[in-house]
Structure formats: C-alpha cells, structure tokens
C-alpha cells in the first residue's frame, strides 16, 4: 500500500505525551481504551509525574523510552505542542496525532501557530493528524487511539466501512450508530484542522485498503479540490462508493461575475457537480449516512432491471414504491410464472398479484417465505424489498434471513414496526441482512448503489476531452479577452461559429452584411459591455445595408466611453438556444455549465454542471439533466434538434477553456443556437474573462 496512512493506522508502538495519571479525565481515554481492547503493541505513557499510568510503565520524556515508537499522541496544552513536536522530529518518529485545540480554528495567532506546526512537520517528514481532533480507530488491529467515547464501545466491530471526517464528534457518533446496527468499521479517522493529513488522504487510503468496501465521508470544506477529486476517483475506480454528508450548504452564495455562467454556480453547486461526476452518494442526515453507507459496505448490490416490493400492508407497499420510483428505480411487471405462483399462495381477498405485492396481514409466515422465494426467482427482478409492519418480528426476520442467504440477489427489509418488531430488527442486523427504518432511506441506498455502478462503468471507459494549451495567445491580457483573439482560439478549438465579421465602422458593417446575407445581427464588441442586451449594444433582424449603417451609428453613440473593439456583424441564425459556459470554482477549478440560453438563463436557474475535463458521454448526460432543454428531443410536432452537433460544439467549448490556460476565470458562450437534426449548432456570442495572474484552484 502506497498511502502513508497505512503505517500511521497500524503502529507497532505508541507513546502518549501528556497522558494524565487520573484515568477519569478525557485525556486518559486513549490509554484506557488501548488496554481495554487488548492493543497488541507497546504503549508508553509520557508523564514525568507518574511511574505508571493505566497499567503501563510511564516515562519522563520521549527520549527516555526504550525504543523509538511508531506513533506519538500529543495531548499537552497548546503552548507546549511545538516543543513536543520538535522532540518527535529530533528522535525521527514518523507519525504524530495532535489532540490539542487552539490553532487555526481560533484566530490569527492560532493560524500562525498552526502554520509553524505544519512547516515543522513537513520539514521533518512527520505525518501529522490534527490538531484539534479526536484521533482514529482501527477496528481490525484494535487501535482505538481516540478520546471519543466511541473508542470505549465494546466490542469494536471490525468490518468494511471506512469513516473519514473532519469532525471528531460526528465521526464518533457514526461509529456508535454503526456498531448499534452491527455494521462493521474498518477504520475511523478524524482529521480536525488538517495541518497534515486531510480527508482526501483518508480517501486515498481507503481506496487501497482491501478491508474497506465503502466510505462514510463527513466534511465541512475541501482544502485541496484537485487531490480530493483524484482520491475520490480512485475510490470509484476501485468499486468503493463514497457516501457523503457535506456540511456548510447554507454558506453557499452566488458569486459576482461578469458572465451569466459565474452567476449560475456557487460552492455547493460545485460540490454537487463533483459528486455527480464521481458517483458520490449525497445524504443529509447522520441516520441516512450510517444506513446507506452501511448497506453499500456489506450488501450485494442490485442491477438496474428493477425491484420487487412485498408487504403485509397495501399502504406501506405503495409508499415504498413511490419512494423507489421517485429515485429512478423501476418496479417491473412480474413474469407470468411468478404471477401464477402468487395466485396459488395468496388468499382470494389479496388485491394484488403484481408488483408491488400486498400479501395481507393474515398470510402465514410459511407462505410469506414462499412468496419471497417466488419473487427472488423472477428473472426480471434484481432485488426484493420486504416491508415489515406488524408484530411478527422474530419469525419474519428468520424467514427473510433464510431466503437472503440462499440467493445472490439482494433481499432488503424496511422495518416499520418500531418496538413491536425490535427483536426481529436485531436478528437481521446480526445476520447482516440490510434493514432500513424508513422507505426514503431504503430508496436512497438502492438508488445510490445503482447510480454508483453506472458512474463507475462509465468512468472506467471514459475518454476526457482534451485540448491544446494556447496560453501564449493571452499573455498580458486581463479582464475580458479581446474578441478577435478569443474568436481565433475558438476556431482552433473546433467551436462552430455563426458567419460573422468584425469591422470598425458602420459603413464596413453594411458591406459585410451584404457578403454574409440578410438578415443580420449587429453588436458592439467592448470588454466594458459584457451583457449587450442590457447595455443597448445589440440590434437584431437587420434586413438591409441602410438598416445596418444606421444601427451601427446608433450603437456606437450608446457605447461612448467604453473600450470599443469594433462592430460584430453576424448572420441571424434561429433555433433552440443553449447556454454553455465555464467558470472557475476556488476549490474544484474549472466547471462546465449547461443551461437554457438567452437573457433568462440566470432567472431559470436550470443548469447542469461538471468539473473539467469531461467526456462526450458526460455532456450527453448533462443535457438530459436540464429540464428546459427537453424540447431538443422534439416537442409538439417540432423536429428534434441536432443534438450530436450540439455535443460537438460543447466539446469545443471545453477545449477552448483548456486552451486559455490557468488564468481563465469564466467563459460564456450564450447562446449556442441548435438547428434541427442534421443542420448543425453554432456559437453566437463569446466572452472570456482572465485573471491578472495564475489562478488559484
């Protein structure tokens, strides 16, 4: 394994600097937990005031230890942390966990102190976890190096769920709830202020860890977007879904920008774009996080043909079907043979013989088990969902468990009975049969599994659209890029343009219009006027040279005071309008945005977004996400649009963005006009904004 966390989480010896002698204090919990769970390595409390702590011999300093430990836990006050870390560096100890708070989460002085800590660790080659965190738990190797109460839970339940969290408290809660449901955990890592190890590095570790099958991810913010994307992609490629509870959504605001595109994205939108691209399953509550991630870590995952639902309640089955179909999971018609079998098993008063199946409350447990077997055997069913509502908890759980063990298809339970069926719920948890408390979470888990499988399959064969760097063409430019330069780069990138000519005077515009053919549009090209409609710098449908000449003079008068590059004459093109643009997110870099085109793009807020680079198949998927672009497929007798040409044009926008280099802030192509099938798609307007220096992403 290449990740440095592999050695970090598997230390052969641990020193605990600042471990208190009073075992009732929170700072002593690590030594208590290590003893309780039988950690097999050497433990060295470091405290000059005590000869023994928690059954382990104590030492006055790190240098007094009989060996160089693999890892040091630092729990001293903030004023002593740097001194402790300097001793770690002098002794060549490779790993350190820093519990202490009072660093970057406080004030400028704290940020400065953390910067010094990070510099010291990096210079000495020390892997640092923290500061301001609760530690980690390696369940397989019995290393509960944390002061979270979760480290004291008995027993530690080893399993296939990895937990990466910036919040130590929430990570501990997830461990606690997972253990309550008998969901095994491979390792939990809380990263705190991330002076060294980040949640992205945790994902890198879990991607390689053979014991981890899925990851529960909690984050308030991502420090290194590029590394996070690469780490998450490694998890996707390895077939390990990430279930994410991303906090801080309320702080996501719209950024001021010169372009429409910039106004259509914010930090949360950028996060969602990354999540969709990589198949990350998003949840909004801790309960969902535990149940969905737990399901993905230990269950067989259904295919995409569909799910059969069976219940003793018609209302419960319909409610569950609603939740499944709302998330794109089909409930297929059952095969004729299955329907025939159900007809023999179910009483005459049972209303349904098809999916969902209401078996009624009076059906015996023996017959219920046979119904389950019939549904599992149906060739059009990939998974079976059974809803439990009554008091037959234990017997029902036994039958569900037996059927689940006898098939390769997932058998999933939604346990609605509360305390009436609690014993049965515990039985299913002990047998690792997926069991949910409500239909919404169940549907979220199945949809997450389906979507991840689709994304992974596409990801492993994707061919990202690349482009040739042309940064030399924009050297010295800042703000809005000169139109002539941008148009040249657009042609090189393969972005089709409406027939046009850039001229200096109204007379030249009239002559150009004759060459292009009427009607034409006339625009003032000026970096000070990014939105031509609002600025009155645009005239449409001009049908003669005289109209062009008069409009040109009028537009130039309105543009007095602006930095005018010229008049742009374009032959009018009609069709469906699509906004395509690229904007730079400070965390995740360049994002491709697609939406309905025209002046109402910002008003509609109906867009699809993905980080660059993208593949052509991703572009097709994005077009399907924009509801207002559904008419491209043909609507009420209108012919379908030339979608292949549109996809090619959007690919040109992606290549153009890459050619503009790392200083690109935003690129606005509003609109691309799409003609009917076979007649092409053409960019009508272009605007690119560059930063003064290298962009931070």
Structure description:
This protein has 697 residues and is of the alpha/beta class. It folds into four domains: 5-240, 3-Layer(aba) Sandwich (Rossmann fold), CATH 3.40.50; 303-460, Succinyl-CoA synthetase domains (Rossmann fold, 3-Layer(aba) Sandwich), CATH 3.40.50.261; 499-571, Dna Ligase, domain 1 (2-Layer Sandwich); 576-690, 2-Layer Sandwich (D-amino Acid Aminotransferase, Chain A, domain 1). The strands form six sheets. Strands 9-8-11-10-12-13-14 form a seven-stranded mixed beta sheet, sandwiched between helices. Strands 20, 25, 26, 27, 28, 29 and 30 form a seven-stranded antiparallel beta sheet that branches. The model is unreliable at 251-265 (pLDDT under 50).
């Amino acid at each position: 394994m290449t990740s440095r966390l592999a050695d970090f989480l598997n230390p052969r010896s641990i020193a605990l600097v600042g471990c208190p002698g009073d075992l009732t204090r929170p700072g002593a919990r690590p030594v208590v937990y290590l003893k309780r769970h039988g950690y097999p390595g050497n433990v060295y409390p470091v405290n000059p005031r005590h000869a023994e702590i928690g059954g382990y011999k104590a030492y006055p300093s790190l240098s007094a230890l009989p060996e160089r430990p693999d890892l040091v836990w630092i729990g001293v006050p903030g004023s002593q942390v740097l001194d402790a870390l300097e001793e770690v560096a002098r002794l060549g100890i490779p790993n350190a966990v820093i519990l202490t708070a009072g660093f970057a989460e406080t004030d400028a002085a704290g940020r400065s102190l953390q910067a010094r800590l990070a510099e010291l660790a990096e210079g000495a080659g020390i892997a640092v976890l923290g500061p301001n965190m609760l530690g980690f738990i390696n369940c397989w190797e019995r290393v509960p190096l944390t002061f979270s109460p979760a480290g004291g839970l008995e027993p530690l339940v080893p399993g296939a769920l990895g937990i990466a969290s910036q919040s130590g408290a929430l990570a501990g809660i997830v461990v606690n709830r997972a253990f309550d449901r008998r969901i095994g955990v491979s390792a939990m890592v809380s990263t705190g202020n991330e002076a060294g190890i980040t949640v992205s590095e945790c994902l890198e570790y879990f991607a390689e860890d053979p014991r981890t099958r899925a990851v529960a991810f909690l984050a308030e913010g991502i420090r290194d977007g590029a590394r996070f994307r690469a780490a998450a992609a490694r998890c996707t490629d390895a077939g390990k879904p990430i279930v994410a509870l991303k906090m801080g959504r309320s702080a996501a605001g719209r950024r001021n920008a010169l372009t429409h595109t910039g106004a259509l994205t914010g930090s949360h939108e950028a996060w969602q774009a990354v999540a969709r691209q990589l198949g990350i399953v998003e949840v909004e509550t801790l309960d969902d996080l535990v149940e969905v991630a737990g399901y993905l870590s230990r269950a067989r995952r259904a295919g995409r043909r569909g799910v059969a639902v069976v219940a003793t309640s018609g209302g419960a089955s319909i409610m569950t079907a609603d939740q499944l179909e709302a998330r794109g999971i089909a409930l297929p018609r059952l095969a004729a043979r299955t329907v025939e079998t159900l007809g023999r098993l179910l009483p005459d008063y049972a209303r349904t013989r098809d999916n969902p199946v209401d078996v009624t409350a009076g059906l015996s447990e023996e017959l219920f088990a046979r119904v389950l077997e019939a549904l599992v055997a149906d060739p059009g069913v990939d998974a079976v969902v059974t809803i439990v509502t009554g008091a037959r908890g234990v017997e029902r759980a036994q039958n569900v468990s037996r059927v689940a063990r006898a098939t390769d298809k997932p058998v999933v339970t939604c346990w609605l009975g509360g305390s009436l069926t609690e014993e049965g719920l515990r039985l299913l948890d002990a047998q690792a049969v997926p069991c949910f408390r409500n239909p919404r979470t169940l549907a979220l888990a199945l949809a997450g599994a389906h979507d991840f499988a689709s994304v992974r399959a596409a990801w492993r064969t994707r061919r990202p659209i690349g482009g040739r760097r042309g940064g030399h063409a924009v050297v010295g430019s800042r703000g809005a890029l000169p139109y002539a330069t941008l148009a040249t780069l657009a042609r090189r990138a393969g972005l089709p343009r409406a027939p046009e000519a850039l001229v200096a005077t109204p007379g030249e515009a009239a002559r150009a219009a004759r060459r292009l053919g009427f009607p034409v549009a006339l625009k003032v090209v000026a970096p000070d006027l990014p939105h031509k409609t609002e600025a009155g710098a645009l005239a449409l449908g001009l049908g003669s040279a005289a109209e062009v000449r008069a409009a040109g003079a009028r537009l130039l008068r309105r543009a007095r005071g602006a930095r005018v590059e010229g008049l742009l004459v374009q032959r009018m093109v009609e069709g469906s309008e699509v906004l395509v643009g690229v904007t730079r997110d400070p965390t995740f870099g360049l994002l491709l945005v697609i939406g309905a085109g025209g002046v109402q793009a910002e008003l509609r807020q109906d867009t699809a977004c993905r980080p660059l680079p993208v593949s052509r198949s991703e572009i097709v998927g994005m077009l399907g996400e924009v509801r207002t672009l559904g008419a491209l497929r043909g609507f009420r007798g209108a012919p379908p649009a030339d979608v292949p040409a549109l996809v090619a044009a959007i690919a040109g926008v992606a290549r153009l963005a890459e050619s503009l280099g790392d200083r690109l802030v935003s690129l606005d192509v509003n609109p691309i006009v799409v003609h009917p099938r076979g007649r092409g798609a053409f960019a009508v307007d272009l605007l690119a904004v560059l930063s003064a220096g290298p962009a931070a992403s």
